[in-house]
Design goal:
Oligomer: single chain
Organism: Decorospora gaudefroyi
Bound molecules: nicotinamide-adenine-dinucleotide
Strand content: 5-15%
Pfam families: adh_short (PF00106)
Structural class: alpha/beta
Distance between the termini: 48 Å
Strand order of the largest sheet: 3-2-1-4-5-6-7
Family: Belongs to the short-chain dehydrogenases/reductases (SDR) family.
Number of strands: 7
GO molecular function: oxidoreductase activity, acting on the CH-OH group of donors, NAD or NADP as acceptor; quinone binding
Shape: globular
Protein name: Acetoin dehydrogenase-like protein
């Protein structure tokens, strides 16, 4: 015996569904357009971009068509200048500006310099950060203070100064910051670093709420284990605690923790940051996106 459904859909079967007025999909006018017009030259500041993930982001944004201000601390001035040359060779404008992101007046100088050299600011990538491997009960007041000065105050200084500039320009913008997978689940011996990245995630959500009316979106990226100078240090210091040889800890973590089975490279991260800075993420705000090859699942 066969049982056949009549060839009609649910809404055809129930006339009352057909008469329900369509709910307008139009958002209030201030919500409709977040994007910075792509007709204008787009400019970005990338902090901590003399090396590592920040350098990769700066180069990727230059390839995407941005003019890019490179920032780092004085000790990395010469490698920052090398990144500037690489970007100029791609046909984009670039210059390097030394500033410590933990110092508000230096960040104000950075934003002013970028606007006067490159034009209106469309994107701020607050990438600079530091890590330290130390047991919670061994932390000094200074350890905790410096971690939060760079990783938390640094992001606040960059977000707030860039936001004020973008609001004065009146065309919205993009604020993006470096969090980490430890913003979701801390690593032992990286406790104050983990707490600082939780703060970046929280501040990203809070800024997203208050910046929405100015057409500024605010998102963060959360890398996993990326083979940069920062992980060289973490590998070495964790090895001192456990007796592992240099390079063994990152290899062990990569093999045992990462579903995709390899250590991340900066380009894994910069591709996602390109998306967060670009038009295709215009309807996203307050998010922290994990790029870790499958260590934690959100
Ligand atoms: N490497 C990883 O596995 C990993 C994982 C998760 C998150 N992150 C985050 O990504 C960001 C970049 O990390 P990375 O691996 O490229 O590190 P890195 O140490 O290779 O590069 C960081 C850069 O930031 C600069 N910097 C440090 N303090 C600064 C300050 N006060 N002002 C301006 N610049 C400063 C450094 O000089 C350096 O050039 C950091 O915020 C880091 O916490 C890295």
């Amino acid at each position: 015996m066969s049982f056949r459904l009549p060839a009609r859909t649910l809404w055809q079967a129930s006339p009352k569904f057909a008469t329900i007025p369509r709910i307008s999909s139009q958002a209030p006018s201030w919500r409709r357009h977040y994007a910075v017009s792509t007709d204008e030259t787009r400019t970005a500041i990338v902090t901590g971009s003399a090396r590592g993930i920040g350098k990769s982001i700066a180069l990727r944004l230059a390839q995407d068509g941005y003019d890019v201000c490179i920032n780092d601390i004085e000790a990395n001035k010469s490698i920052a200048d090398d990144v500037v040359k690489e970007i100029q060779s791609l046909g984009r404008k670039s210059f390097a500006y030394t500033a410590d992101v933990s110092n508000l007046s230096e960040v104000q100088g950075l934003v002013q310099a970028s606007v006067s050299e490159l034009g209106p600011l469309t994107t701020m990538v607050a990438n600079a950060g530091i890590a330290q491997v130390k047991a919670l009960l061994d932390l000094t007041e200074q350890d905790l203070k410096r971690m939060f000065e760079v990783n938390v105050y640094g992001v606040y200084n960059c977000y707030s100064t860039a936001a004020k500039q973008m609001i004065s320009q009146g065309h919205g913008g993009k604020l993006v910051a470096a969090a980490s997978i430890v913003a979701f689940k801390p690593f032992a011996l990286l406790a104050h670093y983990s707490a600082s990245k939780w703060a970046v995630r929280g501040m990203t959500q809070a800024f997203a709420m208050e910046m929405a009316e100015h057409k500024i979106t605010v998102n963060a990226y959360a890398p996993g284990i990326v083979g940069t100078a920062m992980w060289d240090l973490i590998d070495e210091k964790l090895g001192e605690k456990t007796g592992a040889k240099k390079g063994d800890t990152i290899t062990k973590y990569s093999n045992e923790l990462i579903a995709l089975g390899r250590t991340s490279v900066p380009e894994d991260v910069s591709g996602v940051v390109s998306f967060l800075c670009g038009k295709d993420s215009d309807y996203m705000t307050g998010q922290t996106i994990v790029i870790d090859g499958g260590i934690i699942f959100t």
